[in-house]
Amino acid sequence: MARIVVTGGAGFLGSHICDALIDRGDEVVAIDNLVTGSAENIEHLFANENFSFVNHDISQYVWVPGEVDAVMNFASPASPPGYLAMPIQTLKVGSLGTHNCLGLARAKGAKFMMASTSEVYGDPQVHPQTEEYWGHVNPIGPRSCYDEAKRFSEAITIAYHRYHDIPVRILRIFNTYGPRMRADDGRVVSNFVVQALSGEPITVYGDGSQTRSFCFVEDEVRGILAFLDSDETGPINIGNPGEFTISELAELVTEVVGSDSKVVYEDLPVDDPMQRKPDITKARELLGWEPKIELREGLERTIEYFRSTGIGA
Ligand code: UDP
After folding, report:
1. Helix axis angle, 12-23 to 217-229, nearest 10°
2. Quick one: which atom of ligand 1 is closest to the CA of 202?
3. Is 242 in the pocket of ligand 1 (CB under 6 A)?
4. Is 158:307 a contact under the CB 8 Å cutoff?
5. What element of type H or E holds 301?
6. Comparing C-alpha atoms, which of 181, 294, 207, 186 is closest to residue 243?
7. Would you give the distance in Å from CA 219 to the centre of its chain?
8. Which end of the chain, N or C, is less surrounded by CB atoms within 10 Å?
9. Which fold has domain 178-212+242-276+293-308?
10. What is the pLDDT of residues 229-250, one digit of tens each?
């Protein structure tokens, strides 16, 4: 049993990580300032004696009393509309927040996991993306608040590893979806599912030929914990290599929902990556991990979740 701090613990991904850690008998201290996370995601854990929650912005000094074995840094707005609305907070949480969490890990002799992202590859010119690829990021574009904050977070994490010798795990997360995504989160899966369930038009940005690779949250969390428990430093891509165009996703969502929503085309956001697909050779070979849940099954489970919240009723 370990005592693990999860920042962003009330978020979509963070709350699923808290669940998985509690399920395996770990003690969890979740930290979140609830800017994009929600107490509803973790309220089922409040009665558990192995779980505690601190409402705090990690851009400010972070302290957790008692022993800590691992710090998992998952705090940040992660949806493009989310970080575009909060560019300065996003830069602060990725930079100052990561520095504070590294300081906590160092003081406690804990290992540190950084939740980085496929966005460090920017609009990639290498396909699929291997961890060796340095990326193609516009440093002053609208997405730079997220991309560059995450690139800085990787740089300071590896510097702490080299200079202070703390064990670190640099994780690059690709598009993840599933239950507990917010209906108004703005990402493509939640938008399309909510639109299809409500009989509203499906908003495809651009011509829909851009691609993404979607990983169901249960697979993603299993990969993340395999990495945490390993001795690898990374970076390691954790994502599902199944690649789909956004038009294909729109078709699949309407089909699975059984919706007659029509597609409407809207402007492609500035610097929107044209293609994205993880090379997961490292995850397979070093962690023995690969995703198991196909997009159709994952969508069925995600749609069921949104239905259970009353959407489309
Ligand atoms: N997208 C879309 N319609 C939407 C939301 C997003 O066509 O309602 C597109 C978006 O332009 C991008 C892709 O879907 O090409 C994935 O967007 P998302 O915001 O989910 O995540 P990203 O991978 O861009 O961070």
Report:
1. 60
2. 8
3. no
4. no
5. helix 295-308
6. 294
7. 12
8. C
9. UDP-galactose 4-epimerase; domain 1 (3.90.25)
10. 999 999 999 999 999 999 999 9
Question: CA triplet 197, 199, 202: central angle to 5 degrees?
Answer: 90
Topology at the third CATH level for domain 3-176+215-238 = Rossmann fold (3.40.50)
- The answer for residues whose C-beta is within 8 angstroms of residue 68's C-beta and 6 or more apart is 3, 4, 5, 29, 104, 105, 108, 110
Question: Considering only CA atoms, which residue is closest to atom 19 of ligand 1?
Answer: 187
97 burial class (0-12, 13-18, 19+ CB within 10 angstroms)?
Answer: buried
Boundaries of CATH 3.90.25.10 in the chain?
Answer: 178-212+242-276+293-308
Instruction: Output phi, psi for 5, to 5 deg.
Output: -95, 125
Q: What SS3 state is found at 158?
A: helix
pLDDT of residue 312: 87
**pLDDT tens for residues 275-312?**
999 999 999 999 999 999 999 999 999 999 999 999 98
Q: Other C-beta atoms within 10 Å of 264: how many? A: 11
Active site includes 146?
yes
Rounded Cα distance, 268 and 266, in Å: 6
List beta partners, residue 7.
31, 73
Q: Indicate where the chain has its CATH 3.40.50.720 domain(s).
A: 3-176+215-238
Consecutive H or E run containing 151: helix 144-164
For residue 3, give the 3-state DSSP assignment.
strand
pLDDT at 41: 98
